[in-house]
Amino acid sequence: MKALTWHGKHDIRCESVPDPQIEEGRDAIIKVTACAICGSDLHLYNGIMPDMHSGDIMGHETMGEVVEVGKDNKKLKVGDRVVVPFTISCGECFFCKRGFFSGCERSNPDPSKAKKLWGSSPAGLFGYTHLLGGYSGGQAEYLRVPYADVGPIKVPEGLTDEQVLFLSDIFPTGYMAADFCNIQPGDTIAIWGCGPVGQMAIKSAFILGAERVIAIDTVPERLALAERSAAITLDYMDKDIYDRIMELTNGRGADACIDAVGTESDPSASWDARLDRIKVATFMGTDRPHVLRQAIHCCRNFGTVSIVGVYGGFLDKIPMGSAINRGLTFKMAQTPVQHYLPILMDRIQNGEIDPSFIITHTGSLEDGPDLYKTFLEKKDGCIKVVLKP
Ligand SMILES: NC(=O)c1ccc[n+]([C@@H]2O[C@H](COP(=O)([O-])OP(=O)(O)OC[C@H]3O[C@@H](n4cnc5c(N)ncnc54)[C@H](O)[C@@H]3O)[C@@H](O)[C@H]2O)c1
Ligand SMILES: [Zn+2]
Ligand SMILES: [Zn+2]
What we know:
The chain has 389 residues and is α/β, with parallel strands linked by helices.
């Protein structure tokens, strides 16, 4: 089959690779009908996540049609149309039973490296390093789905691939980001990053009752799309973000702040962002947490900082003094996608949201390497890429 494979920094190829096979009784194989490129894939593309191997298949936002099921899989049958969560979860362990699917303690077959780095291992993920299981991803013609009687959700009649594909990751992620904020009537939510995750967080914050959303980025098309979702937008290149948020909130700060940027914050945003870039380049630091610092400062006393932008290692100069003295709550996670799937499928089905509004580019797997570049460079108005194998 054809698949997009990783070969080092900025080197993604469309290659022929062996077809996946059923390996365990609960597996399924799906024929991919649509898959997407995520901001998290850019961390691999930029070579900043450790433990990718040459030839690894990329991709963790995938849907398709079931073409084969293992002998123990009682939930799926050939012909079912499903969306596959990016988190691989057994459904039976301590964490899965409590709904913390992205903390599954069984799905990473070699948890030792993650344990060394993070203390414990989270769930295995599709197409996302050997630290997190070394699973082949779904930017391919076919995908092997382990524990396929837990993760995939069947798509009801009448919904297009474009409407449901983002249930695999960015819609639940944006929704979780807003859910973490415990939104009360009258609340103002500030969101850093108007990429796909930020856009989903804006919509979700309004769905969950926010009165105002302040959205921060610098890319004109992304700010314009945020405005179309009724957000007040701020360009971090020409405004002092702290001052503007204080002006908009009677000098108090936002009720909750969402970091939908993560480790690759724009180094030109400020002096501390530039310093982070230098520290990472000289192996004196692991991440660029400028947005997290700013979100903490801009959050009102006893507010919530909701972190869904991904970080990898040990973050420097985080203003914990500000956080503890002012009573902030921190919430963060790789999304336990399965936990949110039924309710978000309902919200799509009853017309509250159509997540396809963020798609700007569609192509084939062969177009994949070029579209990675377009997405990274935010060229040609690119906000979200969907590939149709
Ligand atoms: N927690 C999860 O489960 C989960 C799931 C999916 C994605 N993510 C993470 O969410 C983040 C965003 O993903 P995406 O797909 O939207 O990616 P993206 O790269 O398209 O979007 C990031 C946006 O942040 C903006 N940005 C950069 N520096 C900024 C700054 N200083 N202030 C404000 N905005 C700034 C960029 O211009 C860009 O529009 C990534 O870190 C990704 O890894 C996490
Ligand atoms: Zn993702
Ligand atoms: Zn589990």
